[in-house]
């Protein structure tokens, strides 16, 4: 049995980004309800040496747009990384979802053995498509989506597992 590189990437990224979008909407409403400046949440981080919420969303979308692009042999879209509001973050997610919608299984399936080279954390690496997807792109994507969720939860936003999974 072979893995569908498309099914393991594009639908997963899309589903998680839609859930993240809903979590951000809940956070924005919660900030308004509690009369908290939204920038408190946008700039919040779990630890002093960790990235703030906005950067977590940026990196998550970077992995979501980068993985299928690299696997399909396409140019990875470049974003400005200038988001400073919930509306900006929502627009970035929407732009990423629109990019993901341009891929089909025929674009990505069969890329498991393809050589993928990239620079990550200042380090140049080359992996097979399968190893890149499963060992780099997906873990990093989940880390940053989860950290975004955790930042908001830590700041009292009433979200739960169902919101993270997109089932609520």
From TrEMBL:
SUPFAM superfamilies: DinB/YfiT-like putative metalloenzymes (SSF109854)
InterPro entries: DinB/YfiT-like, DUF1993
Gene3D superfamilies, per the entry: dinb family like domain (1.20.120.450)
PANTHER family in the cross-refs: BLL2446 PROTEIN (PTHR36922), DUF1993 DOMAIN-CONTAINING PROTEIN (PTHR36922:SF1)
Protein name stated in the entry: DUF1993 family protein
Species of the source: Aquamicrobium soli
């Amino acid at each position: 049995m072979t893995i569908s590189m498309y099914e393991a990437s594009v639908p997963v990224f899309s589903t998680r980004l839609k859930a993240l979008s809903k979590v951000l909407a809940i956070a924005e409403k919660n900030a308004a309800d509690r009369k908290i400046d939204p920038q408190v949440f946008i700039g919040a981080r779990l630890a002093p040496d960790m990235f703030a919420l906005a950067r977590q969303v940026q990196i998550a979308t970077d992995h979501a747009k980068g993985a299928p692009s690299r696997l399909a042999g396409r140019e990875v879209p470049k974003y400005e990384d200038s988001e400073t509001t919930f509306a900006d973050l929502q627009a970035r997610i929407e732009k990423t979802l629109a990019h993901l919608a341009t891929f089909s299984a025929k674009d990505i399936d069969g890329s498991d053995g393809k050589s993928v080279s990239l620079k990550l954390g200042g380090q140049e690496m080359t992996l097979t498509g399968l190893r890149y997807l499963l060992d780099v792109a997906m873990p990093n994507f989940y880390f940053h989506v989860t950290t975004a969720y955790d930042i908001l939860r830590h700041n009292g936003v009433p979200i739960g597992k169902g919101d993270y999974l997109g089932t609520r």
